Amino acid sequence: MLNKKTNNKQIAIFEGQKIRRTWNEKKELWYFSVIDVIATLTDSVNPRDYWFKMKIRVKTEDGAELSTFCRQLKLPASDGKYYLTDVANTEGILRIIQSIPSPKAEPFKLWLAKVGYERIQETTDPEKSINRGRMNWQRLGRSAKWIQQRMMGQEVRNKLTDYWKDNEVKEKDEYAILTNIIHQEWSDLSVKEHKNLKKLKTQNLRDHMSDAELVFTALAELSTRQIAETMETKGLE
Question: Which residues contact 100 (CB under 8 A, 6 or more apart)?
Fold first, then answer.
């Protein structure tokens, strides 16, 4: 898949076909044109009609509403103007692909089945998940020392979030608020600003930190947990 910038948006090139997409800064998610994905994975001469009929078929057969995976955003058309069109994030697009009865969609379905099987294996044998992470970092060209620091930092992070979980801090939003505060204390940057500095979008910031950044992050989170335990803090405040 190749990317081509256009008017502050981006077009992904897949199998020689253009897939329009747009980046949601607030949610930090890519949204892809459903019509473009259908045009790429089917031989339909009218992908809009294909999408319309597919939603009816899936609802009739499975009772599922594919529209719930979508939202409407403005994307550029061939005339250069922007029109509202159905888009979905990566999770939604993968769900829609599952309902496309086309040979071109089969590789995606096989991949989804493989990933699902691997995740089930990891729930019974967590070591497989650790090894998968190590292999992914090796593919990124990370050194053995960096990988060791990354894994050590993750352990420190897990102990901190375990403390939060046991002491009335709500997951997701409150975790994000506290993480951002900790990050700003050592880096003088918010997590979002740090990601922008490194030109990252959906990638994990920690996977793109230097050795020193990993150490500072781990020290900050270790100190935070130790102080919290000493003061017996509870809740976000």
Answer: 38, 41, 42, 54
Q: Are strands 29-33 and 82-88 parallel, antiparallel or unpaired?
A: antiparallel
pLDDT for position 4: 43
Low-confidence ranges of the chain (pLDDT < 70): 1-16
Please indicate, yes or no, whether residues 115 and 17 belong to a single structural domain of this protein.
yes
What is the per-residue pLDDT for 9? 54
Given 121, 146, 172, the domain boundary residue is 121
Read off the pTM: 0.69
Residue 148, in any domain of the structure: yes
Where in the sequence is the domain holding 55, given as residue range(s)? Answer: 2-121
Please tell me whether residues 130 and 216 are part of one structural domain.
yes
* 114 and 190 fall within a common domain: no
d(CA 1, CA 112): 18
The domain tally of the chain equals 2
End-to-end CA distance of the chain: 45
CA separation for the pair 126, 19 (Å, rounded): 36
Measured distance CA(70)–CA(78) in Å, rounded: 22
Residue 236 belongs to a domain = no
pLDDT digits (tens, 9 = 90+) for 11-37: 665 656 788 999 888 888 899 999 999
Strands (E), the chain: 2-6, 9-14, 17-24, 29-33, 71-76, 82-88
pLDDT of residue 118: 87
